[in-house]
Design goal:
Helix content is 68%, strand content 4%. It is mainly alpha-helical.
Length: 492
């Protein structure tokens, strides 16, 4: 008797799954605070040169964004770089940009520091993915979350670029693993017919809550340092997870810990109020011991095993490319909320609501059109929306069309979320169980490695404003085409 049939008898949508989904919801709040802290601490408000302290009697001064011009008469003028700036701070909020004056010639420092977050993501995803397949999903999930929270906390004390790079690197170590390890735990304990509802509804509601309240927490605290303290504290709740949850039974079975798996299943059955005959567990025990013995001689329990056949090799390469496309699109569409005529705090908060309808969209259509259809459609529609949004941002004056531009930014963000979430479940079902955590880690690490360039793609907008949107739109179209070559996993 296999795991799915035994779990059905023990309860695959009972009280234990409700607790699991509740803690998954909290994980999503923590994850939203963590990932988007880099956005909220680095908003750059409109600014101009502050009047220098020197005595310029008899001279006129013209102030620009990054320089000022001294005119003694109509024929003589001197242009000098700004040393101080006047910022139009929203609600008097002090960001790292305004406190350290990382604008104009020093604006690159923010992009460099933030790019180290993705360097950390690459190495952290590799390390924690490997660790998850060695010591288990649950302890690794707790460890990676606390690592990321520590990075955010230590960032609040920095004042120079080298230390900022180091702490953002530390923070990035857990940017993805804290979410997808908990995702895998929920995925493996839920019945297939409840996965779409449970995973995406909880993600939509709780991630949405985290995103919508985080800008107001930042404004209330008034300072980027205080906000990072507040954003890192909720991760401490994760220390309680090992006392509330069980380790993945599927992971135990891949490690030959059949007796421990049986013990966990008995506990889940008891918690769910189910009575299961001992014969069921005996059959389960015998089934997996026979299976382990038959597979021991030719086991390929490693990520390399995903390349062992031409068909699986092709699927793996496509998933790697899609991860690159979706990760960079999701990051840019989520972070690019400045310069459209609306407060970036308000726009970030209100468009954060898109996670709820995005989750509902997947719930409504994924079981209807399949995982493949959902992934392909979301990428294609996202490409169209992103291209349209880029065109409107480039052609419409922001102050006169703030509502239209804000709507398009929100619509683009919605499309990015649908594509990201659809890909998460689709990839998880394609990857074999024995290397699921490590496989997801390696796929995500490639995506986050490519995410290193997101800050620089956004910078292309200073050269030609719609260029970032057009580039992302082209990448999403490529991703949609690649989806057509993957298998359908619905009801399989």
């Amino acid at each position: 008797m296999d795991l799915e049939r035994v779990l059905e008898k023990c309860g695959n949508f009972g009280r234990y799954q409700i607790v699991l989904l509740g803690l998954y919801g909290w994980t999503n709040i923590v994850s939203s605070f963590h990932y988007f802290s880099q956005t909220l601490i680095s908003f750059t408000p409109p600014h101009s040169c502050a009047i220098p302290d020197e005595d310029f009697a008899g001279q006129s001064i013209e102030l620009d964004t990054c320089s000022y011009t001294l005119r003694k008469d109509n024929l003589t003028s001197i242009v000098a770089k700004c040393q101080r700036w006047d910022y139009q701070r929203e609600s008097n909020y002090e960001s790292i940009t305004t406190e350290l004056n990382w604008v104009c010639d020093d604006a690159y420092q923010l992009a460099v520091g933030q790019s180290f977050f993705f360097v950390g993501s690459v190495l952290g995803t590799i390390f924690f993915g490997y660790l998850a397949d060695r010591i288990g999903r649950l302890p690794t999930c707790v460890l990676t979350t606390l690592t990321g929270a520590s990075g955010d906390f230590f960032t609040s004390f920095v004042g120079t670029l080298p230390w900022f790079c180091f702490t953002r690197f530390l923070s990035g170590l857990s940017s993805d693993t804290q979410y997808y390890l908990m995702y895998i735990l929920v995925f493996e304990y839920l019945s297939p017919k409840h996965r779409t509802l449970g995973l995406n509804l909880i993600l939509g509601v709780f991630y949405c809550i985290g995103l919508m309240i985080s800008p107001w927490i930042a404004i209330y605290l008034g300072n980027w340092r205080s906000y990072l303290w507040a954003a890192s504290l909720p991760a401490l709740i994760m220390l309680l997870y090992p006392f509330c949850l069980y380790e993945s039974v599927e992971w135990m079975l891949t490690k030959g810990k059949v007796d421990k798996a049986v013990k966990v299943l008995r506990s889940i059955a008891k918690f769910n109020g189910r009575k299961v005959d001992d014969s069921v567990f005996d059959d389960f025990n015998r089934h997996y011991r026979d299976k382990l013995n038959s597979e021991k001689s030719n086991s390929s329990d490693s990520f390399i095993g995903m390349f062992r056949t031409p068909r699986l090799r092709m699927f793996t390469i496509i998933l790697l490319i899609k991860s690159m496309i979706i990760t960079i699109a999701f990051d840019i569409l989520s972070r690019n909320v400045e310069g459209v005529g609306t407060s970036p705090f308000m726009l970030f908060s209100y468009t954060g609501f898109c996670y709820l309808p995005a989750g509902l969209t997947i719930i409504m259509f994924q079981n209807m059109i399949g995982r493949k259809g959902m992934a392909c459609t979301s990428l294609f529609v996202g490409a169209i929306i992103t291209a349209a949004a880029g065109y409107l941002v480039a052609t419409l004056p922001p102050q006169d069309n703030a509502l239209v531009l804000a709507f398009m930014v929100g619509l683009g963000r919605y499309a990015g979320v649908v594509a990201y979430d659809a890909e998460a479940q689709y990839a998880t079902e394609i990857i074999p169980t024995s290397v699921r955590a490590r496989g997801m880690a390696n796929i995500h690490v490639v995506g986050y490695g490519f995410g290193f360039f997101s800050s620089y793609i956004i910078f292309l907008g200073t050269i030609f404003k719609p260029l970032p949107s057009l580039l992302i739109s082209a990448l999403l179209l490529i991703g949609a085409a690649l989806c057509l070559t993957l298998p359908e996993t619905l009801n399989k």
